[in-house]
Amino acid sequence: MSGAAGGIGRACVAAFLAENASVAMLDRDRKRLDRAASELSGHGKITVVDLDITNEAAVVEAVRHAARDLDGLDGVVNSAGIDRVEPFEETDWAVWDRIMAVNLTGAMRVCRAALEPMKASGKGAIVNIASAAGLRPLNDRVAYCASKAGLIMATKVLALDLAKHGIRANAVCPGATDTELFRQYLGDATIEDVKTHYALNRIGTTSEIAATIVFLLSDEAGFITGSALAVDGGRVFH
Ligand SMILES: NC(=O)c1ccc[n+]([C@@H]2O[C@H](COP(=O)([O-])OP(=O)(O)OC[C@H]3O[C@@H](n4cnc5c(N)ncnc54)[C@H](O)[C@@H]3O)[C@@H](O)[C@H]2O)c1
Questions:
Q1: E strands of 33-157, at which residues?
Q2: pTM of the full structure
Q3: Cβ-contact 230, 222 below 8 angstroms
Q4: In CA terms, which of 2, 100, 134, 204 is 20 to 30 Å from 106?
Q5: Is 198 helix (H, G, I), strand (E, B) or coil?
Q6: How remote is the CA of residue 130 from the centroid of ligand 1, in Å?
Q7: Is the predicted pLDDT of residue 185 greater than 90, yes or no?
Q8: pLDDT at 187 over 90
Q9: pLDDT average, residue stretch 44-64
Q10: Per-residue pLDDT tens over the stretch 16-42
Q11: Residue of 6, 40, 144, 168 marked active site
Q12: What is d(CA 115, CA 2) in angstroms, rounded to the nearest whole number?
């Protein structure tokens, strides 16, 4: 799981451990990673790797290490992501490139590195965490929205390409979910303002996103592949 030290990532790890899964936690933030791992370690088997998912060699090595340490690999979740709010006229191309490198290419790197161990397991499931912002445009977020829309389409292509190996691939598209990243990008808005855009008149919780991902990874979701599931309280149509 990439982005495992973050708000949604950590909730996913807790939910996977509750299902008796063993989990590899990948994140670039060593401090948050160690804190999350020590809080969760009593609940099941965890292996921890700090890395930047834009670094190909580090990703390949981390996935190899995880598959060895956990006796194989049958699921991948990409939660690592970054955001930036800025008017299009002021687009900083270095920031644009970084957002694409993490949100889109980074997720694909992790998927590709996990392919051989998943093939060896005889089955596999991928869940890439995109965003409601990949389905519906938001002002001043061109790089973020484009990276998440790209991740949704890339995931659909993986669903086609990998079906022959028994590997499913789906995207989850959360709406506003209460995490550090979300609060960082609230700007001048308040949670009360944000809620008004949601049919359910509230923002989501990390455990609601995690529960959806647990389902998509499970055998109960065995006929679901290539979907982009909005978990967003009705944001995309409201
Ligand atoms: N919170 C929301 O409202 C919301 C809504 C829609 C989509 N999302 C998406 O869900 C995912 C998780 O978001 P979150 O709210 O938990 O954010 P978060 O900032 O709490 O977690 C993201 C994690 O990704 C890690 N990360 C960032 N760049 C990385 C890199 N290059 N290599 C390795 N790790 C890296 C960070 O260290 C962090 O721990 C993101 O992809 C985000 O775009 C979040």
A1: 46-50, 75-78, 124-129
A2: 0.98
A3: no
A4: 204
A5: coil
A6: 10
A7: no
A8: no
A9: 97
A10: 999 999 999 999 999 999 999 999 988
A11: 144
A12: 15
Q: Would residue 144 show up in a list of annotated catalytic residues for this protein?
A: yes
Question: Cα(211) to centroid of ligand 1, in Å?
Answer: 17
- Structural domains in the chain? 72-231 (3.40.50.720)
Q: Is 176 in the pocket of ligand 1 (CB under 6 A)?
A: yes
Using the atom order of ligand 1, give the atom closest to the CA of residue 78.
41
Residue 181 has pLDDT above 90, yes or no: no
Cα separation, 18 vs 226, in Å, equals 26
Whether the pLDDT of residue 157 is over 90: the answer is yes
Burial class from Cβ neighbours inside 10 Å (0-12, 13-18, 19+) for residue 85 reads: middle
Pairing of strands 23-27, 228-231: unpaired
What single letter denotes the amino acid at residue 130? Answer: A
| 124 CB near ligand 1 (under 6 Å) | no
| Strand 124-129 relative to strand 75-78, pairing | parallel
DSSP-based three-state secondary structure for 121: helix
